[in-house]
């Protein structure tokens, strides 16, 4: 399943919740989860990228959030890989694999799992004890290969990563 589709859903969930919360400061995530007909804990874990949703649940949420027929069709036709429902994997081609020749490429992909993660080369270089140049080049290479993707700042603040990872 394309990570961008999941990010679109997470962004729509966050946007709608924020809209409702701004109208009523007492509006809770539990109430929103009830409206979406999903367990509050499960919704929270999904938003944070810790737990996935079945394709059927994604379709139901997409309909409730008015993401449109095209989005729903893409979800229905998408192919999910991997064993854990919260993780989306992508098979690397030979060129992408060659880009991963340094150990820190794989480490960079996993960094969003850390508390206090900052998607900037300075923070990454310090955390991994690599040069700023190495961090910048690795980020550029991973982004151009589609192994990490950019998310709007609003989505980054409200959600954790779903593979491919999200960066500012």
Topology of this protein?
Elements: H1 3-23, H2 29-36, H3 40-47, H4 55-64, H5 69-77, H6 94-99, H7 103-110, H8 121-128, H9 132-144, E1 148-150, H10 153-158, E2 165-167
Parallel strand pairs: 1-2
Explain what you see.
With 168 residues, the protein is mostly helical. The chain folds into two domains: 3-77, 434 Repressor (Amino-terminal Domain) (Orthogonal Bundle); 94-167. The chain has helices at 3-23, 29-36, 40-47, 55-64, 69-77, 94-99, 103-110, 121-128, 132-144, 153-158, and strands at residues 148-150, 165-167. Helix 4 (55-64) runs antiparallel to helix 5, helix 7 (103-110) crosses helix 9 and helix 8 packs across helix 9.
How are the strands of the largest sheet arranged? 1-2
Rounded to the nearest angstrom, the radius of gyration is 17 Å
Number of helices: 10
Spans with pLDDT under 50 lasting ≥5 residues?
A: 80-89, 154-168
The structural domain count equals: 2
Strand content: under 5%
Q: Determine the N-to-C terminus distance.
A: 22 Å
CATH fold-level assignment of the largest domain: 434 Repressor (Amino-terminal Domain)
The count of DSSP E runs of length 2 or more, i.e. the number of strands, is 2
- Helical content class: 55-70%
Query: How much is the average pLDDT?
Result: 76
The main sheet comes to:
2 strands, parallel
Sum up the overall morphology in one term.
globular
CATH architecture of the largest domain: Orthogonal Bundle
């Amino acid at each position: 399943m394309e990570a961008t589709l999941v990010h679109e859903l997470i962004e729509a969930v966050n946007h709608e919740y924020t809209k409702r919360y701004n109208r009523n400061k007492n509006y809770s995530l539990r109430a929103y989860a009830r409206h979406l007909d999903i367990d509050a804990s499960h919704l929270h874990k999904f938003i944070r990228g810790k737990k996935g949703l079945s394709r059927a649940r994604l379709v139901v949420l997409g309909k409730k959030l008015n993401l449109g027929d095209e989005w729903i069709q893409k979800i229905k036709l998408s192919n999910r890989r991997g064993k854990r429902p919260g993780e989306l994997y992508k098979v690397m081609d030979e060129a992408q694999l060659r880009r991963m020749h340094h150990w820190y490429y794989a480490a960079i992909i996993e960094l969003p799992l850390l508390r206090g993660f900052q998607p900037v080369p300075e923070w990454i270089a310090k955390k991994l004890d690599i040069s700023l140049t190495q961090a910048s080049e690795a980020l550029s290479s991973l982004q151009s290969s589609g192994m990490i993707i950019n998310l709007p700042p609003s989505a980054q603040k409200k959600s954790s990563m779903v593979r491919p990872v999200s960066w500012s």
